[in-house]
Amino acid sequence: MKTGGMKPAANESKTLLNSDTFTVFDSLKFPVCMIGVDGQLLARNNEFLRYFESNESGVRLDLSHPFFPEYRRRIAVSYLRALKGQERRCYAVMKTAAGERMPVELSLFPVYAGGDVTSILVFLQIPDSRVISFDGFSSAFMEEDARISPIYEFSPNPIIRMNPEGEFLYASPSLENFIGYGQNELVKNPKILVNAVSDYDLQKIRKAFQEIVSGQAAMKRIGDVRVNAKGDTERWMNALLYPITGNGELVAVEMYIEDTTGVKRLERKVSLMGRISLISDITKGILHSFNNIINVVLNRTQLLLQITEKESVLEGLKMMERTANEGLKQVKRITDFIGDGDKLEEHYEESLIDLIEDAAEFARIQFKVDENERRRSVALEKTYYAKAVIRTDIRLMRELILSIIFKVSQYIRREGTLSIMLKYNGSPCLSVTAAFTGSSVTSESDEPEGIFGEVDVRRLAEKINVKIIEEETQESYTIQAVLPASMVVEGKKEQDESMYRVRGLDIMIVEDQEELKDILHELFNNMGNRVSVFENGTDALAEFREKKFDLLVADYGIAGITGLELAARAKEMDENIITVLLSGWMLRDLKAYKNVVDVFYSKPFKLDTLIKGIARLIIAKKKA
Of 367, 474, 557, 617, which sits most exposed with the smallest number of CB within 10 A? Predict the structure, then answer.
C-alpha cells in the first residue's frame, strides 16, 4: 500500500484494500475505516489516526458514558445488519486519543466482492462544535444560554422539541427508530406526529403542553399513549413534557419519549397466558366429558361392527366409526398440547411425521384465527423426504416442533408461506421456513409478536439433545432442528392378529360410567372371560380380599378410593396381577406409579388398542 493511502491495521491480510482506490479517503476531513467480516479493523485514513489512535491506545467507546450499553448494542446490531447487505446508521460517544469525549454518527456500508459482503466501510461524522448538533437545526431557534448539550443527539430515547405555539422544531434521530419517520419528513409534514396518536391521547398531550407553557406545571407525565408508527405498526410510549428556558423566558417545550412497546407486548403476553391458563382449566373439564361421550360412541360402534351383517347398517356404522376416530384424534391433539398430564415412561416411541402433522394441524387452527382477526395470511406446506420412529420425551419434542412453527410463523407479518420439510442427512432434520411475500421483521425494534415470538427454542431443544440452526435472509427465515441419530428406533413388526386374544381370565372392571361399564363387560365377556363389574373403588378392594383376579381394568375417577390407589392395593396383595388404568383426565406423576400401573390409556381409546396392549402384557409375563 502506498504512503499517504489508507493505512492498514496491524493484522491486515491481503484484501481489496491494497488498491490505490482507497487513497481518496485521506482527502476527507472526517474519519473513515474498514472493518472485516470477523470484526477486525482492516484499514483507516489519516483523520481516523489523528482522532482515535496513539502509541498508548487505539479506538474505543466511552465506557463512562451513561448510554454506553445502548450504544454498544446498537453498534453490534448495525454491524450484523451490514454483514447481511443493509446500509445502517447508529450513534456513539467515543474517547479520542487525547482522552476527550466525542459524539459521532457512524454510517456503515457493506462492501461486496463476488456477490458476497467482504468488509464494511464506516464513515464517522463528527460535529464541528460540541454545542451545535449535526444538522445545526436545534440551535437555530435557541438563544445562547438556552443551548443544551448535544447528548440529545445520542439519546436512545426519542426527544421532540416544540416552540411555545406548539409548532414542531426538532426531533432527535432516535425518533425515527420509534415512529419510522425521519427529521426531514417531520419538518415537511408536522401533521405526521398529530395523526400518529388518537384524538383522546392528543387532547391529553395538548392539555399538558398548555400547562407547561402557562407555568401551571414544571413538568407533566403522560402514560400509555398508543402510537401508530409508519407501516401501521403499533407502538406504545410514556411521555414527559418539560420547559426549555433562555434568559429567564420559555423558548421551547420538549417531550421526552419512553418506548414502552416491549413492556406492553409483555403485558399482553402475560395477560394472554393467564387467559389461556383459565381456558385450559375449563377445557380440561370439557375434554373429560367429551372424552367419555366419544369413547362410548366409538366403543359401541366397534362392538356393533363385529355382530352386524346388513350392508346398509354396516356402512352407517363404519361412517360413525370414522367420524369418532377423527374426533378421537382431535381430542388427543388438544389434550397433548394444552394438557400437563403424564405418561408411565419418561421416554416412549412415536412417528416423527405424526408429531409434525399434529403440530401443523394445531398451528393451522391458529392461522385461521389470525386471518380473521389480524388479517394475516399464512399458507402451510409440508414435504416429507424421510420417515422415522423416535424414542424420546415426546411431550418436549411435540412442544419443540410447535414452538418452532409458531416462532418462525411470527416473521410473516402480512402474507407468506410456511414450509415444513423433513429430510434425512445421517439423522432426521426438520426445517421450518417462513417465505415473505409481504412485510417481515426488518429491524431490531420490530420484533415478532405472539406468545411464541420470544420462545427460547434453543433452551427447549437442549433438554432433548436437538441441535438448532437459524438462518435469515431478506426473503426468508428458517429454523432447522437436527435430531440425534440415537433418537431413531427401528420400526417393530406387528405380531400376528391371532395372538391378540384375551380369554379365560378372571377380570375385574371398575368404571362408574354406565355406558362404558356395559361395553367393557360385553367386550371381555364375549371373549370368554369371567368378568366382575364394580362402580366403587372401596367395594372393589373388598372383593379383592375375597377372590383372586388376573386382570384389573379401573377408571381413575371412581368413588371411594381412586383407580390408582386401587391398583396399588391390588399389587400389594398380588404382584402378578395385570393393572390397566383408564382416565378422561390428564394425570400428573404417573411415572411414580409405573410399578403399580402396567399400562395407562387416556380416554377416548380404541377397543382393539386396549386388547392388544393387554395381550402384549400377558405374553411378556409368560416369557418372563
Answer: 474
Q: What is the per-residue pLDDT across 412-459, written as a single tens digit (0 to 9) for each? A: 887 888 999 999 888 899 999 998 755 444 444 444 444 444 457 888
The length of the chain is: 624
Angle at 526 between CA 522 and CA 529, to 5 degrees: 100
In a domain, 274, yes or no: no
Distance, in Å, from the CA atom of 193 to the CA atom of 181, rounded to the nearest integer, reads 9
Distance in angstroms (rounded) separating the CA atoms of residues 58 and 48: 10
Q: Do 159 and 185 belong to one domain?
A: yes
Query: Residue 249: inside a domain, yes or no?
Result: yes
| 9-13, 56-60, 579-583: segment of lowest average pLDDT | 9-13
| 143 confidence band (pLDDT: 50, 70, 90) | very low
Q: DSSP characters for 187-209?
A: HH-THHHHHTB-HHHHHHHHHHH
Where does a domain end: 62, 94, 125?
A: 125
DSSP state for residue 169 in the 8-state scheme: E
Is the pTM of the predicted complex or chain greater than 0.70? no
Tell me what pLDDT residue 618 has. Answer: 87
Angstrom CA distances, 540 to 56, 507, 512, 534, stand at 88, 12, 12, 6
Is the pLDDT at 616 greater than 70? The verdict is: yes
Residue 258 contacts residue 157 (beta carbons within 8 Å): yes
Number of domains in the chain: 4
For residue 579, the enclosing domain spans 497-623
User: 195: which 3 cell numbers?
Assistant: 395523526
Across the beta sheet with 467-472, the strand order is 377-384, 415-424, 428-436, 476-482, 467-472
Distance CA 155, CA 97 (A): 24
DSSP assigned state of 559: B
